[in-house]
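User: Sequence in, structure out. Go.
Assistant: Echoing your sequence, followed by the structure tokens.
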Amino acid sequence: MHVRLRNAAGGVKEVKVGFSWTTLLFGFFPALFRGDLKWAVIMFIISAAVGVFTVGFGAWIPGIVFSFVYNKIYIKELLEKGYHPADEHAQSALRTNGIIAA
């Protein structure tokens, strides 16, 4: 499910709520392409650290974990930066998924 977030300047971002298939398949690259440099670096470092300790076999494990949480993290950071739900559908979807309070 996608929702639209709008900032005070009128900028609109359409973001996916829920599981992130792109993060599962491409690791930290979706965060990098979204301009979310902080989380791209965090994902890369965690994957590299796990990969070093497991001789490369476990580097995919953080990707699975981040697939479940990254979209929620990204939306929360956008809300902190001044974005807000653009319509009632977005508001209810964010409430349903526990991203914003009722």
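User: And one key feature?
Assistant: The chain is about 55% helix and 10% strand.
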